[in-house]
Amino acid sequence: MAAISPARKAASQILMAVERGQSHSDDLLRGKMVNALSAQDRNLATALVLGVLRWQIRLDHQLHALLKRPNAKLDPEVLIALRLGAFQLLHLDRIPARAAIDESVELAKQAGHRFASGMANAVLRKLSGVSREGFSEESVAGLALAQAHPAWMVERWVRFYGLELARAICRHGQTQPVLSVRIAGPEVEDELIQAGILLEPGELLTSARTIVSGDVTATPAFLEGRVRLQDEGSQLVAEIAANAFGVAGQRHGSIIDTCAAPGGKTLILAERNPQVRIVACESSPQRLAQLRGRLAAHAERVECRHADATTLLEDASFDLALADVPCSGTGTLGRNPEIRHRLQPEDLPRQAERQRAILSAALRAVRIGGRVVYSTCSLEPEENEQVVEAVLAAGAKARMVSMESQLEAMAGNGVLMGSGANQLRGCVTPEGALRLMPGVFHTDGFFIALIERLA
């Protein structure tokens, strides 16, 4: 029996679990199996898993074209072995073709598909000699295949945002996300620099930094919670919420975070408002336990509550609500590539129904004059402006507050970088919401709306 490298074996097992819908790649890549690998194998396993998931649609198209029966249905283990081999051959120049082919064939064989090993060998050898020329991106079908996204998803983005922006979204979804951290102060930044972490300023926020090189997760600052990994767009959502609370002149008061886990935004709210009581809600007991652990340093004034955000009982009890609602996640495809394989068009109305319920509950929970920040990491109008429009049209006595005033205030108090504020002004929608698009910034995609309760 030929040997298979630990990285390829781990990648195959993770991809199989994702294919079966058993877990998410992000969770599995941070699990025990990957953590037990050497640093080199861990990096390769991560590159293989995320690369295959990002390029799977195009890889399958290229592989099936080389089969004797192009429409043949392959066993999942065989298909994953072929995808791994094809990704290495077509996208990882440093890996010898022989290693990519031989170990992929062995993966198929060890999975109990000896009859398929000859086919896998023949297909991958043909693929290694195929030209790598790209596909045209001038049509929906061409762009979808070229950038390995579902055609229905690309068609929507072209319809809503135009071909050029849809192209930028797709390309962003094929790249490794920028690694951003939140810096609590200059002393923490100095500590990271001394630990060999190379940092650059963020695009938008004065407290954000981009990691250029170095393993920040191995530093005492990270292990002790003084620096946190968090997408800069995600940080911006919480900063807007913190600013919306402060604009009302509040120093004391209360905030509810309706969908708080994993807690990164709640931490920013707590740090920006040190005298405020915060209720952090989470419906999953497991995620609630993780949330409590992450917010332990603020336990005296942050209550972690097991609650379903759609059925909050509070009425006019809080000064601010953050409703960062569960969504399709189409703004995070670079970070969560398997979403494109699982999401279906019919999922969007179901998501929107729950999102409307959460926003309505959040508006009830704030006092008259209180504010709700509604946000998603989705690019889909059904989950964004249409949710806000539907809740307001249903009789909620509330109004949209333009993000332009928030951006001005945040630039004035030093939260936003001047250049970031200038760029973000161009991202305010006609209704006054803020839309961050992947490919425009080095962030995930977000929609953020500020709503004030009137009665």
Structural commentary:
The protein has helices at residues 6-19, 25-29, 32-35, 39-64, 76-91, 97-110, 114-128, 140-146, 151-161, 163-173, 186-194, 220-223, 232-247, 264-272, 285-294, 339-342, 347-365, 385-393, 403-412, 418-425; strands spanning 180-183, 198-201, 208-213, 227-229, 254-257, 277-282, 302-306, 318-324, 366-376, 398-401, 434-436, 446-453. The chain has 455 residues and is α/β, with parallel strands linked by helices. It has four domains: 6-128, N-utilizing Substance Protein B Homolog, Chain A, CATH 1.10.940.10; 140-173, no CATH class; 180-229, Alpha-Beta Plaits; 232-453, Vaccinia Virus protein VP39 (Rossmann fold). Strands 5, 6, 7, 8, 9, 10, 11 and 12 form an eight-stranded mixed β-sheet that branches. It has a four-stranded antiparallel β-sheet with strand order 2-3-1-4. Strand 2 and strand 3 form a beta hairpin. The model has no long low-confidence stretch (mean pLDDT 93).
Number of helices: 20
Global Rg: 24 Å
Strand content: 5-15%
* CATH class type of the largest domain: Alpha Beta
Mean pLDDT comes to 93
- CATH topology grouping of the largest domain: Rossmann fold
Helix content: 40-55%
User: Roughly how many Å apart are the termini?
Assistant: 73 Å
- How many domains is the backbone divided into? 4
What's the β-strand tally? Answer: 12
* Helix-strand makeup class: alpha/beta
The appropriate CATH architecture of the largest domain is 3-Layer(aba) Sandwich
Q: Can you summarize the main beta sheet?
A: 8 strands, mixed
Flag low-confidence runs: none
Net shape: globular
CATH superfamily of the largest domain: Vaccinia Virus protein VP39
